[in-house]
């Protein structure tokens, strides 16, 4: 029976996916010609189902009228409606409308739906595009099993400022890596056929440059040069477009003084004209209405005018289109064919999703029951989590610990925390507890090992401690004594510290990015005992941890590692897994260095020696605590010299570079071999190095692998101030290594 069903499903899949663009175009046009202006505007209106879940409540509450609006065909899509029962109810309402146009249902499925995977900065740190795609594929399967057909993901905002809380949502400072991850996530969500009821529409966000807010302060204005916009912040969006992203989301910020929402330069010139993208743009939550606060619109009606002239197709929760667009058309301020163009895009997407063929196609109670939080999905989350951990330090190969160790002291506020590893943006996973570290250790260890535990302190301490220095933090150290006593009995101390899941994410910028509360002081007390000290760092961002870097014997960054965190961490600490993650954002020594990133310009006075008149600080170094691309392994890897197949390369030629990488350790392991390029002389100053390729390779102990890269013009071009490709002859350096600091360099000439 199952085989017959699956054959039928494939046939259905082929049938619904069988529409050609021309057939969809005709169906959409026929439908549009039947629609009233109210019904057209309805398609551009998006309501949330739950209040304050992911944004502030609109000022004029239409809660009671929302369901009537759906029934009248005045709503085109919903967000934050979850599970078959609720989605079915809303869809049945929509099908009571005159033209029975089905709703689309979107949710922020960022790193899992019910089975939660590592937060995106963790997924990014795996440098494993296959793993990232798989995580999002499973997320899409679970979300679609719950009735959804659209996710507001991937967030592809490049950021160089870890004070900004949303670095947890991508956590990448490099455009090339950001672009590869964007493609992997779009593929994961959308698969090969949007109408397949296992896939959902992706949404590249936030367009654009939201990751560069002034002072790292959430929602703050963004001022970036066109050079940075074109060469740093846009490439991941361009990659998502090339991967077929169906939708995009506006950003909250102003970009060089103009709000990104309703921004004609960004949307009409870049997205629509330059890139020829025909997808659907949804505003961010209320961002059309926020044009008033930005000071570029005098009232909500004016917001609607700007929104539509900037081709923001769907209004999420500001009611600007719902309340004022009809007037604007009737007054001739907005032409109806502008509305028509937008509605065509929305209806086209609904056809591609298969919603017209079967508005209930995504609604399958059985799938919802069997797929969500399945053992198979949990296992996948655990396996992927192990690829995301970054080993920053491992003195004397302290890690992995032996499973036969006599006693371990597990100390810290996050040892038994079931919530922290779900991370922010945990979708429907927030209600399922993650496996805490303590449970993971218990599972891996035998009764022979004495597993001691003390919390030591809470994670907050006093939030104001930073600013009311006279506040005596002694009271927050009450648990120190017990922790120290306990730790003295153990062979090794494993401290689990960091940030809670809500200290990063939206509206979670921080002024200081050290360990919150008195956690660092707790570590200092533990260090005095003189036992080996392992620090497991859970956070949603790079943290300033100079004392830990200096004094811990081993440091494992695990981010917020998802629902199986404790198991994945324990398997890594005790050697069932070999860490292979690499940093995708620079770890600064202190907040004063921010913004700090590897792909910086050289300046006219590079700090290449100890001399006063050079670009640097009088009170500290330029170098970060840990650089982009950094991460150790239980293995060690030795790099040979890069070998170029030619020393000169024509504009349309391919230069091949190979390098021998040997695993000189005692364990098999994976290494991310990174290739950087430096254009030595160019019309516009270029970064001292830029990531242009990488390969994560598995190498057995003692084995040597020859890793091969191909350099083509695509890896050498950059964009000028007119967003035109620029490729200039001259000398280039090619650098290959284990991180952005440790590289081996050869040069070639582009002729
Ligand atoms: C939020 C976020 C956006 C999210 C949207 C819907 O404010 O900025 O990323 O997709 O609202 O939840």
> If you average the pLDDT, what whole number results?
94
Task: Give the full name of the CATH homologous superfamily of the largest domain.
Answer: Glycoside hydrolase, family 3, N-terminal domain
Assign the CATH architecture of the largest domain.
Alpha-Beta Barrel
Roughly what fraction of the amino acids lie in strands? Answer: 15-25%
What radius of gyration results from the CA coordinates?
Answer: 27 Å
Which small-molecule species are bound to the chains here? alpha-D-glucopyranose
Question: What report would you give on this structure?
Answer:
- With 751 residues, this protein is α/β, with parallel strands linked by helices.
- The protein folds into three domains: 6-368, TIM Barrel (Alpha-Beta Barrel); 375-584, 3-Layer(aba) Sandwich (Rossmann fold), CATH 3.40.50.1700; 637-750, Sandwich (Immunoglobulin-like), CATH 2.60.40.10.
- The protein has 22 helices and 27 strands.
- The protein has a six-stranded mixed sheet, with helices on both faces. A five-stranded parallel sheet has the order 4-3-2-1-10. The chain has a five-stranded mixed sheet with strand order 19-27-26-21-22.
- It is globular.
- Bound molecules: alpha-D-glucopyranose.
- Alpha-D-glucopyranose (GLC) binds at residues 54-55, 79, 108, 152, 205, 284-285, 506.
Question: Can you give keywords for this protein?
Answer:
751 residues, alpha/beta, TIM Barrel, Rossmann fold, Immunoglobulin-like, six-stranded mixed sheet, 22 helices, 27 strands, globular, binds alpha-D-glucopyranose
């Amino acid at each position: 029976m199952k085989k017959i069903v699956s054959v039928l499903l494939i046939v259905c899949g082929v049938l619904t996916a069988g529409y050609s663009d021309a057939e969809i175009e005709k169906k959409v046009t026929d439908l549009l010609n039947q629609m009233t202006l109210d019904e057209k505007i309805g398609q551009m209106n998006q309501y949330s189902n739950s209040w304050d879940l992911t944004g502030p409540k609109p000022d004029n509450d239409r809660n009671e009228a929302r369901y009537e609006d759906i029934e009248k065909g005045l709503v085109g899509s919903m967000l934050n409606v979850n599970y078959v029962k609720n989605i079915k109810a809303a869809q049945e309402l929509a099908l009571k409308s005159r033209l029975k146009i089905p709703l689309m249902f979107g949710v922020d499925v960022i790193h899992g739906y019910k089975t939660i995977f590592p937060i995106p900065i963790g997924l990014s740190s795996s440098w494993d595009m296959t793993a990232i795609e798989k995580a999002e594929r499973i997320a899409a399967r679970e979300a679609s099993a719950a009735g959804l057909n659209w996710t507001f993901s991937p967030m592809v905002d490049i950021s160089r400022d870890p004070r900004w809380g949303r670095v947890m949502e991508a956590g990448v400072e490099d455009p090339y890596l950001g672009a590869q991850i964007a493609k992997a996530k779009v593929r994961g969500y959308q698969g090969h056929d949007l109408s397949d009821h296992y896939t959902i529409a992706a949404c590249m966000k936030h367009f654009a440059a939201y990751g560069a807010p002034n002072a790292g302060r959430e929602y703050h204005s963004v001022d970036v040069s066109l050079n940075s916009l074109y060469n740093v912040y846009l490439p991941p969006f361009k990659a998502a477009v090339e991967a077929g992203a169906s939708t995009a989301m506006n950003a909250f910020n102003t970009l060089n003084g103009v709000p990104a929402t309703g921004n004609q330069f960004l949307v009409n010139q870049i997205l629509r004209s330059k890139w020829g993208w025909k997808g659907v743009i949804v505003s961010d939550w209320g961002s059309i209405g926020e044009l008033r606060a930005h000071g570029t619109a005098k009232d909500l009606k004016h917001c609607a005018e700007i929104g539509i002239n900037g081709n923001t197709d769907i209004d999420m929760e500001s009611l600007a289109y719902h309340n004022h667009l009809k007037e604007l058309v009737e007054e001739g301020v907005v032409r109806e064919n502008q509305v028509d163009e937008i509605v065509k895009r929305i209806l086209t997407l609904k056809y591609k999703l298969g919603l017209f063929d079967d508005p209930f196609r995504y609604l399958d109670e059985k799938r919802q029951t069997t797929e969500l939080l399945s053992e198979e999905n949990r296992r996948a989350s655990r396996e992927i989590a192990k690829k995301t951990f970054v080993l920053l330090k491992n003195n004397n190969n302290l890690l992995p610990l032996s499973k036969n160790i006599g006693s371990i002291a597990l100390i810290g506020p996050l040892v038994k925390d079931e919530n922290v590893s779900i991370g922010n943006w945990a979708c429907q996973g927030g209600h399922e507890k993650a496996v805490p570290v303590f449970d993971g250790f218990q599972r891996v260890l035998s009764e022979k090992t004495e597993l001691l535990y003390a919390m030591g302190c809470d994670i907050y301490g006093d939030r104001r401690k930073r600013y009311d220095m006279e506040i005596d933090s002694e009271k927050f150290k009450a648990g120190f004594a017990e922790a120290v006593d306990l730790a003295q009995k153990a062979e090794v101390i494993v401290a689990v510290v960091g940030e809670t899941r809500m200290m990063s994410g939206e509206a979670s910028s921080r002024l200081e990015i050290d360990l919150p509360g008195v956690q660092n002081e707790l570590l200092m007390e533990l260090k005095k005992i003189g036992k080996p000290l392992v620090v497991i760092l859970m956070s949603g961002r790079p943290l300033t941890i100079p004392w830990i870097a200096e004094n811990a014997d081993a440091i494992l960054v695990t981010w917020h590692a998802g629902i199986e965190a404790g198991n994945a961490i324990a398997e890594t600490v005790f050697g069932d897994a070999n860490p292979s993650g690499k940093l995708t954002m620079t770890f600064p020594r202190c907040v004063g260095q921010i913004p700090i990133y590897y792909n910086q310009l050289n300046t006219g006075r590079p700090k290449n020696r100890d001399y006063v008149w050079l670009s640097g600080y009088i009170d500290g170094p330029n170098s970060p605590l840990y650089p982009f691309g950094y991460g150790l392994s239980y293995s060690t890897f030795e790099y040979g010299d890069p070998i170029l197949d030619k020393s000169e390369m024509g504009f349309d030629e391919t230069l091949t570079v190979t390098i021998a990488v040997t695993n000189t350790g005692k364990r098999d392991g994976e290494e991310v071999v990174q290739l950087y390029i430096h254009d030595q002389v160019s019309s516009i100053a270029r970064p001292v190095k830029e990531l242009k390729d990488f390969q994560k390779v598995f190498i057995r102990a003692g084995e040597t692998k020859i890793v091969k890269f191909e350099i083509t013009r695509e890896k050498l071009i950059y964009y000028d101030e007119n967003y035109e490709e620029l490729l200039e002859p001259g000398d280039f350096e090619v650098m290959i290594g284990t991180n952005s600091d440790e590289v081996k360099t050869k040069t070639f000439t582009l002729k």
